[in-house]
Amino acid sequence: MVEMMTLLSQCFLHKKWHNPQSHHCIWYGECGNSTKIPEKKLNCNYTGPPIPLPDQEGQDLLKDLCPGLVYGDNRVCCDTQQLKTLKNNIQIPLQFLSRCPACFFNFMTLFCELTCSPRQSDFINSTDFSAFNKSTTNVDSVTYYISLAFANAMYNACSDVQAPSTNVKALSTLCGREASQCTPTNWIQYMFDINNGQVPFAINPNFTDVPIGGMTPMNNETFNCTQSLDDGSGPCSCQDCSAACGPTPVVPPVPPPWTILGLDAMTVIMWCSYIAFLMIFLGAVLGAWCYRRRMVTSEYGPILDSNQSHSINSDGDATCCETLGERFENCLRVLFSSWGSMCVRHPLTVILTSVVLVSICSAGLTYMRITTSPVELWSSPSSRARQEKDYFDQHFGPFFRTEQLIITTPVNASFIFSPTSGGPDIHFSSILNITLLHQVLDLQTEITNLTAEYKGETVTLKDICLSPLAPYNDNCTILSVLNYYQNSHEILDRKIADEFLVYFDYHTHFMYCVSSPTALDDTSPMHEACMGTFGGPVFPWLALGGYEGTAYNNATALVITFPVNNYLNDTEKLGKALAWEKVFIDFVKNYDNPNLTISFSAERSIEDEIDRESNSDVTTIVISYVIMFVYISLALGHINSFRTVLVDSKISLGIAGILIVLSSVACSLGIFSYIGIPLTLIVIEVIPFLVLAVGVDNIFIIVQTYQRDERMPEEELHQQIGRILGEVAPSMFLSSFSETVAFFLGALSSMPAVRTFSLFAGLAVFIDFLLQISCFVSLLGLDIKRQEANRPDILCCVKLSEGQQVKSEGCLFRFFKKIYAPFILKDWVRPLVAVFVGMLSFSIAVVNKVEIGLDQKLSMPDDSYMLDYFGNLSEYLHTGAPVYFVVEDGHDYKTIEGQNAVCGGVGCNNNSLVQQIYTASLLTNYTKISNVPSSWLDDYFDWVKPQSSCCRYYNYTGAFCNASVVDKTCVHCRPMTTTGKQRPNGTEFMHFLPWFLSDIPNIKCGKGGHAAYSSAVDLIENNTDVGATYFMSYHSILKTSSDFIDALKMARELTDNITQAIGPQNKTYSVFPYSVFYVFYEQYLTIIYDTAFNLGVSLVAIFVVSTVLLGFELWSAVLVSFTIAMILVNMFGVMWLWDISLNAVSLVNLVMCCGISVEFCSHIVRAFSVSTKSSRVDRAEEALAHMGSSVFSGITLTKFGGILILALSKSQIFQIFYFRMYLSIVLLGAAHGLIFLPVLLSYAGKPQYLF
C-alpha cells in the first residue's frame, strides 16, 4: 500500500557505540524539497559530530522509534523533525510487520541506522548534493553499505509475516512483487529505489560483508523470528514464522487399496465365491439328475388345467403357521369376493362415491406448492449444514449472489514486454493485450449500466450490488483486473515515456498490482492505486485464470465477478435482484464480439435452466405416457375374432384404468398439499411412472384373469367377478401394501427429496389399490355387461346383431403356458440360472466403486449456456469458494486467554483457531484450504497499537478521528507506555472495537476494518460485547463431486479440533465451517448410510408384509425379499457399468425399484404358494404361466415403450437417471421375476403337502 516505502530518511536501532567522537554525521535536519517528489523533504548536508536532541518531544520519539540509539545525552545525526518524518513514513510497514517483533526490530534497525545513527559515516557515503541556500546544501544521493548477513537476517525474520485482512504475506505489499519472488536484496533495493514514488533522494544499497574503500557495512545485531526481544516481546507466532512451527505437518498416508495378489480384493473374493458356487451347484444338480434317472422319470410333470380352482389342501398334519395361514387366506378370499360382488351389483354408487372422494382429495392441488429451491430440495431443515447456514445468514447476512463472466479470446495477440528497469523480458498472453482489455472494459461498463424493470421501478446494478464501504463509497464491488485501472479507459492508456522508451504503462502497473493488490499507490510516478474503486483489493487469483503458479502475466482468461446483495426475507429487494439478473443473462446471451469468447453465470441461472429443462422435457414425457396409454388401452382387449373386434376391444376400460391411476396420483398430491407439504420436480416426474407400473400390472391381472375364467353354472356376473377378485386381490393387496409400507418407512430418511417422494409414492400406491378394487371393478362389470350385450366399445349405445360368444386364450398367455414356462423349467435349462448368481457376484464386487455425487453439468439441458461456464470454471479458475470459520456466540474475546485461543500473532496459542487454519493451508491438497484466514482480531491488535496512527480520537469530544484527518486535537487511543503497547482487554477492548469496524482503510492506515470485517463481527448488547464472528479463507479449486465432499469433510474435521482446543470444558458454543455449497454436498457424507437404511427398511417391510399376506409362509417371504435384494444389488452393478452416480436422484430411483420389484416377484410367489400341483417344478410352471403373462404385459411391455422415448430427452439428467435407470429397473425386474424367481422356486420353494 502506499507510503509504505517512504521509509527512507529515517529509522531505528544499533549496537552501542562507545566513542561517538570518532564518527561523524552525513546529514542533520531537513532542507529543500525533493525534485522527484516535491511534497517530501531532502536532508541537509552535515559532516560534524552527532548532536544531542534539543527537546523532550525528540527524545520521546527517539526512545519510541529507535530505543537502541538512546544513550547518554542522546547524540544522534537527526533532529526532531526527521524523527517525525520517520514516524509518519513507517506507518504502513508498522501495521504489517509489527505483528512479528523480531521482524519489525530488524526492519527499524535498517532505517534508524540510516536516519539517525551517530556512526553514519562508517557505512553511509554521500555522493551527490544540491544547493539549498548560500550556506547549506541538500543531500541528493547516498550509498548505504549493508552487511549481506544483516539483509538475510532481516528478510528471514519477515518472510513469513502474514497480512490477515488480505490472506497474503506482508512482503507482497512491501516488496513491490509477489512475496515468493522477493529476496533480501531486491526487497531493500525496492524500498530505496528513487523510482518507487516514495523515496525523495537516491539511496544505493551496497551489500557486502567486508569493508570496502574504508566503509564498514552496517551489521547491527538482529533477532530471528523465534527469539524474544530485550524489551520482553515474545517470539513470532508460527503463522508469521515457519521456524517457530516445529516439524512441517505431514499428510496422513492414503490407505492402500485392498488387494489380493495385486488384484482388487472384492473382485478376487467374488470370483472365487462364484466359482465355488458353480462347482457346488452344478455338482448338486448333476447328482440329483442321476438319482432321478434311477428312481423316477422326471420331476417335471404336465401342467394341470388352467381353470382349476386354486386352494391349499390343509388336510394332514399341517403346522400351526400353515393352519393360521390357510384361515387368513380364506378370510381374504371371502372378504374380497364379497367386496367385488358388491361393487358389480352397485356400480353407479361405487363410481360416484369414488369420483366424489377423488375430487375432494384432488381439490387440495389448489394449495399445491412446488419447491424448486435447491436448498429446500437437497438439505433437510434439521441437517447440520442447513442449521449452520441459517445461523450464518441470521448473524452475518446471507452469502452474496454471484454474477460472473469468464472471458477468453480466439485471437493470437500475445506479446513480449521488456521492462526498462531491467530484468528479464515478460511474456503477456493474448487476453492481456491492451486492445482486448479496452473491449472487455466496454463490455464491463455496459453491464454496470444495465437497467431492469420491477413493479414499475427501474433497477440498476447500484441498487443491488455489494458496496463494502457504503455509505461513504457507493461504488459496486467488481472483481476484475480492470479495477486495477479504476475501470477507466484513460488510466488504462496512461503511460510515462519519451521518444525512445516507455518507462511506466499498463504493463508495469499490472505487474505491480498482481503482486500488491492492496496497494493504494503503485509507487511509480503515475501514483495509480491498485485497490478497486469499491475500496477493496482485487486478488489476481480471483480475477485471472489459466496460468501456472504466480505467472499472472500468462493468464489466458479474465474472470469478472459482480457480487450482488442477497436477502433472507425481503422479497421486494430479492425481486429486484432477480429482475436485474434476468436482464444481465439476456444481455450476455446476445452479446457478440468475435474477439471475445464469453461463458457466464448468474445466481438464478441454475434454477432457471432446471425450470427450462423441465419444460423442454414435457413433450418427451407426454409422448412417453401417450405410448404407454395407447398400449394399455389396446392390450387390455382380448380379440376372439375379427368380427367381434369392436365388441371385444377394451379401449374405454383401459382409459378408465389409466384415469384411475392418474386420480390416485392427484389424490396423493392433493392430500399432502392440504397438509402443506410442498411438491418437488422428482415427485411430479417419477411418481406417475411408479404408480402406472404398479396400477397397470394390477389392471392386467384382474382383466386377464377374467378373460381366462369360465363362468360356473348358475353363477351370475357379480358372483364370478367377486370370485375372481377373491383369487387375485390378495396378491394385489400383498404387492400394494408391501410397497406402501416400504415407501412410508422410506420417509424416515433425512433427505428431503427422498422423504417427500416416499410419502407421496406410498399414499398414491395405496389409493390406487383402493380405487382398483372398487371403482375399476365396477367399471369392469359394466364393460362385461356391454360386451355380453354385443355392444361395441366406446359406442356402447349401438347394439350389434347377436353372435355366439366364444372365449379363447390370449396369444401371450398361450405362449407363456405352452412354450415359455415349460422351456424355462426344463431340467437342462434351470441350471443356467447360475448366470444370475454371476451377475450378483459381479455387482457385489463393484458396489463400492459406484461414484458418489452429482456432476452439476448433468442437471443442465444439452444446449445450456451453463455447460460452457462449468467447463471453463474447472479449466481456468485457481481458487475455490470462500469458507468462513464461524465462532458461535459465547466466546470471550475480552480476556487474554480468550484472545490467545483465537488469534494468530505474538503470544497466541500454538493450537489457536487462526494457527490451526494456517497449518491446514500448508496441506492444501489434503485439507482443501488454500489460504491463511483473514483475522479481524489480529488486524484489530495492529490497528489499536499506540505506535500506529490508526486509532485516534478527538481530545475534546472523544469521537473517533480517522488517520487521514490532520488535526492537532486528535490523540492516540492508547498511551505510549509498556501497558499501552499491550493488547487491549476488558472494557477497553470493546471501547475501540466499533471504531475499528467502522474505520475505512486509507493511505495512512491500511488496517481499517470497515471493508474487510464490518460484517465479520456481530456486536451485541449495545456494542458492549462480541457475539458470533467469522474468519474467512478460501477452498482450493474444487472440480469434482468428490473434491467438494472432501472439502466439507476436512473443514468439519478441522473445526471440530478447533472447538476442542479453544472452548472451556462446559462450553455451550462451537466453531463450524460454512461455505455456500455445503448444504448441497452434506447429503453425500451420509449417502451410503441413507441408501443402506432406506433400502434395508424397505426390504424388511416387504418381508414382514409378505410373511403375513402369504399366509405366514416365512420361507416364501424370504425368497421374495432375497430376489428383490438381488435386483437392487444388480442395479448397483448397472450403475457402475453405465456411469450412474449415487445421489438423491438415484436413491429415489432405487427406492422406486424396490417397489416395482415387488410387482415382478410377489404375484409369482403367491401363485406358487396357492398352487395345488404336487411338485415344485409344476407349481412354479403354473405360477409362471398364470401370472407371468400379466406381469410381462402389465409392467414390462407397458414401461418398455415409454422408457425408450426418454432416451430422446434433451436433459442429461433424464437420459442418465431416468432412461438408463428405468430401463435397468424394468429389464432386471423382468429377468428376475420371469426367469430367476420361477427357477428358484422350483429348486427351493416351500413344498406342498398333500395327504
TrEMBL record:
Transmembrane segments: 268-291, 348-368, 618-639, 651-675, 681-703, 724-745, 757-782, 1092-1112, 1118-1138, 1145-1165, 1185-1209, 1221-1244
Pfam families linked to this entry: NPC1_MLD, NPC1_N, Sterol-sensing
A GO term for molecular function: lipid transporter activity
Subcellular location: Endomembrane system
SUPFAM superfamilies assigned to the protein according to its UniProt record, in alphabetical order: Multidrug efflux transporter AcrB transmembrane domain
Catalysed reaction, written as an equation: cholesterol(in) = cholesterol(out)
Any one annotated GO CC term: plasma membrane
GO biological process, one term: cholesterol transport
Keyword field: Cholesterol metabolism, Disulfide bond, Glycoprotein, Lipid metabolism, Lipid transport, Membrane, Signal, Steroid metabolism, Sterol metabolism, Transmembrane, Transmembrane helix, Transport
UniProt topology in membrane: Multi-pass membrane protein
Domain SSD, residue spans: 617-782
InterPro entries xrefs: HMGCR/SNAP/NPC1-like_SSD (IPR053958), NPC1-like (IPR004765), NPC1_MLD (IPR053956), NPC1_N (IPR032190), SSD (IPR000731)
Family of the protein in this entry: Belongs to the patched family.
NCBIfam families: 2A060601
Protein's name according to its UniProt entry: Niemann-Pick disease, type C1
